[in-house]
């Protein structure tokens, strides 16, 4: 792959198109087209309504007309400037010269942008995947941007029914709370782009149904999932879906931070108030599963109550679970559960307070 084309004259939003490594796919071709559209629109042009820049270079005539309301007519070369009439006044000569220069500048600008955009495509993709278009004499000089895009889309961006179904099922792929929830929305956006490119876009209801499956597998949004399903049907829209679970994730992280801070505070208090009553639990709280034995102390873990000295008190056997309790949570896979220390036995007895001796001056 050759050096990507960077335009120093036109400040494109994508000076370098995202390179396509290996064979183009529906997603990578869609991304490339999107970046080209942004570049073409960023340069002002009066043709085609004047509101879409040079988009007509990279968008086919029919969809451009539908978008702009009028066709994109490329500027034509004005040819050789005709001689002025013998009776022309100086102002008429000046006006004619200005009109010719303006027409020539418009054509040169159009030709320059068209060539830059074409070269951006040629350098973003391995020639293996478009050399069928190469002319034996002129190479790619006469190959337009629209011809290149049409070739890529018809050859590599066509998805089979199996491809589309596999792409749809990826919406339900497991997502783990260890990664930002924003990654989930990005994944959904990419999968929807592929479906759009394949001509079978996802409905919002399909996206929400399969995404809920992914969130259920995460095991930390049970309450939020239930409150979502309790909403009125008209309120369960994709517009409301993301903010609902963004709020749920923010609250989950806030509670986890508060719980962790409480654990560290309690642990520090134990360390500074004489012999610690539960040294084994404090040491084992780092990474032990439910049912672990440490220094002959048997431990259990409960999603609601945290680490306990009762090995029979687990997430699955808890008699007083909190809302959202996860039955399959263990200490090494807490699923958002408690991290505090909790003793099922009697509280340790504090040593009796010793009164200070009376003052000799009393």
Would you write up a description of this structure?
It is a single chain. This protein has 362 residues and is mainly α. It has helices at residues 26-41, 61-68, 90-124, 145-156, 161-169, 181-197, 204-218, 222-229, 238-272, 279-284, and strands at 293-294, 297-298, 300-302, 306-308. Strands 1-2 form a two-stranded antiparallel ribbon. The chain has a two-stranded antiparallel ribbon with strand order 3-4. Helix 1 (26-41) packs antiparallel against helix 4. It is elongated, with a radius of gyration of 34 Å.
Task: Label this structure with key terms.
3% strand, 362 residues, mainly alpha, elongated, 3 domains, two-stranded antiparallel ribbon, 10 helices, single chain
Range of helix content? 40-55%
Number of helical segments with 4 or more residues: 10
Low-confidence stretches: 269-290, 343-351
H-E order: HHHHHHHHHHEEEE
Q: What distance lies between the first and last C-alpha atoms, to the nearest angstrom?
A: 95 Å
Radius of gyration: 34 Å
The fraction of residues in strands falls at under 5%
Reported for the largest beta sheet, the result is: 2 strands, antiparallel
* Count of the domains: 3
**Which class best fits the helix and strand makeup?**
mainly alpha
Query: How many DSSP E strands?
Result: 4
């Amino acid at each position: 792959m050759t050096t990507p084309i960077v335009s120093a004259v036109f400040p494109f939003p994508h000076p370098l198109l995202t390179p396509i490594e290996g064979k183009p796919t529906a997603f990578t071709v869609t991304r490339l087209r999107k970046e080209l559209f942004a570049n073409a629109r960023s340069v002002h042009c009066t043709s085609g309504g004047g509101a879409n820049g040079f988009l007509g270079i990279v968008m086919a005539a029919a969809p451009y007309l539908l978008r702009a309301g009028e066709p994109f007519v490329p500027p034509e070369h004005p040819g050789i400037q005709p001689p002025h009439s013998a009776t022309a006044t100086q102002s008429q000569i000046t006006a004619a010269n200005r009109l010719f220069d303006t027409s020539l500048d418009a054509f040169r600008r159009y030709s320059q942008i068209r060539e830059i955009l074409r070269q951006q495509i040629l350098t973003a993709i391995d020639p293996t995947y478009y050399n069928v278009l190469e002319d034996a004499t002129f190479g790619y000089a006469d190959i337009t941007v629209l011809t290149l895009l049409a070739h890529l889309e018809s050859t590599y961006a066509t998805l089979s029914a199996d491809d589309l179904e596999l792409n749809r099922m990826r919406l339900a792929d497991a997502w783990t709370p260890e990664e930002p929830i924003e990654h989930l929305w990005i994944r959904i956006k990419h999968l929807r782009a592929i479906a759009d490119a394949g001509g079978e876009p996802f409905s919002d209801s399909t996206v929400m149904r399969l995404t809920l499956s992914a969130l259920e597998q995460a095991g930390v949004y049970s309450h939020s999932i239930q409150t979502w399903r309790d909403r009125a049907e008209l309120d369960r829209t994709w517009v409301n879906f993301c903010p609902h679970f963004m709020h749920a994730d923010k609250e989950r992280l806030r509670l986890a931070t508060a719980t962790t801070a409480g654990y560290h505070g309690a642990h520090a208090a134990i360390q500074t108030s004489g012999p610690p009553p539960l040294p084994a639990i404090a040491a084992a709280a780092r990474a032990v599963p439910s049912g672990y034995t440490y220094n002959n102390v048997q431990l259990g873990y409960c999603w609601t109550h945290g680490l306990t000295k009762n090995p029979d008190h687990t997430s699955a056997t808890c008699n007083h679970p909190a809302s959202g309790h996860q039955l399959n949570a263990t200490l090494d896979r807490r699923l958002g559960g408690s991290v505090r220390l909790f003793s099922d036995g009697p509280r340790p007895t504090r040593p009796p307070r010793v009164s200070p001796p009376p003052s000799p001056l009393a």
